[in-house]
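Changelog excerpt

This revision adds worked examples to the README so contributors can see how folded entries look when concatenated. The first example is reproduced verbatim below.
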Amino acid sequence: MTAGKTPAAHPGEFTRNPGSCLLRAPAAGDQSGPRKARSPVSFSAAWLGAVLDVQTPRGATGFVVAVSGGADSAALLAAAAGLGGSVRGLKVRAVHIDHGLQSAAAALRDACAAACGALRIPLRVISVAIESGTGESLEAAARDARYAALGAELAPGECLLTAHHREDQAETLLLQALRGAGVPGLCAMPVCRALGAGWHLRPLLDVPRHELRAFGAQAGAACSSDPMNDDPRFERGYLRQRVWPPIESRWPGAGAALSRAAANLAEAQRLSDDAAAVAVGRLRDGDALSLPGLRALNAAERVSALRFWLREAGALPPSAARLTEALRQMLESQSDRLPAIVWGRWALRRYRQRIFLTPAAPPRLEEPRRWSPAAGSALALGPGLGELRWVPQRGGFDAARLPGALMVRRRKGGESLKPGAQARTQSVQHLCQSHGVLPWMRDALPLIFAGEALIAVADLWLDARWCAADGAPGLIAAWQHAPTIV
């Protein structure tokens, strides 16, 4: 599976390693550039502008402030409104996600509308439905739905700005530690990550909550209170209400210290990613990873390389235990087995000494469909499967011999054809095995029938008995935008 493309960085401003936790500024460091210029932080629109000038990727087309209706996002909105296009002339708009989960939803929506109206910032409100019964908490389901909607909302190159601050970063580090996270999880929240067609920036990770809210109060930012944020039934609410106050009382600098720890761990992760990137470069075998190459690494290097490869392809890696089990099965299963480890939307599969990242449910051709053999005629095969299109080609099918309607369906078993004038009749199963067609993609192959006779498997194999004489005009069913099958 090919990783999605990440928009390019601005040469000389920063570089971003795929999958790494932090956006790196060569001169100023990940999160410390503006802090070095002015310490301690005194939050203002000018400070935000200085941070965004470093963090905003090249090719950015605008800023989208995520507003919840609460005090933190209202303060960020007020500061963003004060930029006045000073960061590369980029305009600011806002978006509010309405989860519809609580009675306060209307008040939060109204607060967002009031704040944006006062600042003359365009606002878009998006309602989302939270799916329950998926095995994850309501808190996690709401977060996933929120970011899915925000990612879909971003126009190409737009930068989503969220008001995550220093204490949010500290809370995230604590929660990840309590879940037994490894170094990638303990990096907590990255400064910048790809999201949808643009990026997600968190420019306030160095800003204490009290400074952010003091700025918002001074700016008269309209806000409301979100009860879910402090509800002890939820993990983060419990941490804020019951756990964080005694920590901060005993260690007054806890927020800054934990945020700094997250940055240090992110630096360690970046170095690990640099080494993993080199290893993955050596292991690549087309869209897959070489199993013999993985065997040559030690256990820690294997896990690091595999995790990096998954993140680079846009897949959230499974838990450490599941990743270790996946490697065990890939390395130890008998050669005639086809191990598959499935988590969420993804799966790791092995075939012929290669490891592939695939969807949990690979695409397959669904119901049979009729198709007329006329030059230029196209047949859509379904999501992820491309289309068949009749194109002229010498030595292709003799159009005069084809019936007016053909049938296209997936294999059922036992199908065969004669793939060459001098070849013997062979089963589709044998042809797939001899040509290395991935086993989980064989139900995606479009088989073309004239009555009961199989005449072609897309443009992979044509039955010679239906083809025009050598050099004579004919037709083939070209498989366009086809998925990877070998």
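The second example, added in the same revision:
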Amino acid sequence: MAVRRVLKERKLRAELEEAERALRHSQSLYRALIENPAYGICRCDAEGKFLDANQALLTMLGYSSKEELLAANRASAVVLDLGVGKSLAGRTPESVRIEPIEVEWKRKNGTALRVRLSGRGVFDERGDFVSYEIIVVDVTEQRALEDHLRRQAWSDSLTGLANHGRLFDVLHAEICRSKRTAREFSLILLDLDGLKEINDRYGHLVGNRALCRLAQILGDCSRSVDTAARQGGDEFALVLPESSAAAAALVARRVRDLLSNDAEEPSLSVSVGIATYPKDAETIGTLLYVADRDLYAMKARRPKVAQAGQVA
């Protein structure tokens, strides 16, 4: 029994030493994390109000002191949206572990701050909820860069409209939606008349300006649900969800009228073709073909351009 008691005491001492080493290691990691200028650290109560914050978080939010941040937070209705509810007392730490989520905060000056939050709930020795410990990472610049690259990938560099690839994605999405809802949509193809003559007579800068003028008018004639795109060269398109051929014809007429009334020189005109899904076609390829055929039929009916940008 004496031997067993000695062995048990030795085992308990070893476990205690191991626990103390783990605690010291955990404390050193926590201190390193608190002092890391790249990560914001805060504690908040069950209602999402700040209790404490490190200097990195103060810098992120634009406050000069912890007291100023805590006072501003107490005086406002703003709380941390942790996505896990409010009343958490009595739950286990595992049940309130905060998986990484992204939310938008406001800095002191009112500008937007995109942050990624992660952390855990802290409990006292009785198992009652005490606070959250939250790690805050500023991802504002990262998300802005991603949005910029995404826009570059889907937009035409000259006009800012959707590009050829984006147009095909939109057409595919509209066909899928039309199959679900049984509602038609229309496609308008537009060709800027006489672009080569404009380039030859006035130069490519004026030609590029002519393309941008048409792009601006297409944007002005589009609803928020519509997609205006530049296919390339002098070819443009408008995708009009839940719009009939008659509605598309009205939009096309408005585009032509605005273009003809534009006082900027040289004067511009467009040829237009319209196709409606599923009445005229049931695939992207045939939809484009029908609209393109309609466009060139219109172009053939129009008088020839006598001089750059002007109809004889």
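Reviewer comment on example two: The domain at 36-144 is CATH 3.30.450.20 (Beta-Lactamase). The chain is about 45% helix and 25% strand.
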